[in-house]
Amino acid sequence: MADTILRGQAAVVGVGLSEFGEVPGWSHFELMAQAVQRALADAGLNKADIDGVFAVVDRASLPAAMTAEYLGLRPKVMEGTMLGGSSFVNFLQWAALALQAGLCEVALIAYGSNARSGKIRPGGAVPIPYESAYGARLVTSYALAAARHMHQFGTTREQLAEVPVAARAWARKNPKATMRGPLTIEDVLRSRMVSDPLTVADCCLISDGAGAVIMTRAERAKDRPKKPVYLLGVAAETSHQGIAQMHDLTVSAAAQSGPRAFAMAGLAPKDVDVLQLYDAFSINTLLFLEDLGFCKKGEGGAFVCGGGIAPGGSLPVNTNGGGLSCLHPGMYGVFTIIEAVTQLRGEAGERQVPDAQVGLAHGNGGSLSTQVTSLFGTEDTL
Amino acid sequence: MMQGAESSYQEYLAKGEFRIQRCDDCSSHIFYPRFLCPDCGSSNLSWIKPSGAGTVYSTTVMRRRAEAGGDYNVCLVQLNEGPRLMSRIEGVAPTEVRIGMAVTARVAQSGEDGFFVVFDAAGN
Fold it and tell me: For the whole model, what pTM was predicted?
């Protein structure tokens, strides 16, 4: 039963979002601390209760130590593994293990960024040798994947445009989302081309913002003020770092992390009520819907057509508006967890998916490089 | 101690030669240059001259203002030997580069980036 050892053993008891969007005059640690303060209030816990810190913060080379110092903590468990945007979904696995092993009692997963006001370009890592001469940017990798998907499966430009249009339709139901104006397929197609076939409307926002998640063991979660949201499954895999080393640009390692997360949870895609997929670019959503088993490989375009993942569609995806319309600082992963928890608690307001019991949060990092899938459930799913 | 793979590769390029590695044990062709074969883990790797022939696996046009130099191509080329590398196709408008196009390697140089491999449409 190795696959199921973590199922339902740990729960999210608090989540917090900082002010986000454009927050000039705030440092990344200030935003992070505001998110932590809100997550602690949500959990009914004090900062002194935190004894495990799992953090990646833009521009912090020792992120867990720096986060602990900034908050005035002396954690017994520290994790700062940098996988790009999926880091925070990955932390779920290690936080759950550390909690279950008794290494810590209260785990904090935290992220903060002032990417917008600080003018930090996501993906501005060390140039990959053998690639630096060609002028590739982060968007290039995703454009190459989109072009290949269109070539191999006949995916159309209009189908890709369904993704940002659906994200915007959800964002319009989220009073905190950054982009809330109407957006049509034609608007996306007429937007400025950045890297063919992706226009600026296919690319995520660059935001200021922070998020924090508090986890405890399941037995400690029950006496918290909010309904616990249980971690049912989590799994990771990486297939490459640089895009040239990705074996098949139309299949990400989510095709492995997904089935393993579902096996741990004892669930299948049909059981999922609401999905949060890391949508750094429109192509991501198609790839992850396919790789995670919500449709067949190559059929993502048809799946999202006609508002399939928009409000009123067959599958609610990125209900906060996603990285495309809600917020996307340097890394978005923690926000997939926060929105999944918000939905499973029934606290999502106008965008609430009725009777949501099982939620999926999927993190992506680098150039489709690191994939981490998590599944959450309400008490009824245990 | 023999020379590292990365500097050996650069030395070949500086002499105008595009070389890739081949594993003596499992016969895999390898790019980018490494100390260990990513397929079998062997360190018995030899430098070979690839045919230079390849196919465009995927391609994009990076859009850029004309005053900053204008649009340019970035693509992934699959060598006939198997490995794939990032590059660009020269001598063809960036918008005219197509997936599946047959291309041939050439060593290029620029002051800023040193020596690197670009491709021309095959037959040109």
Answer: 0.97
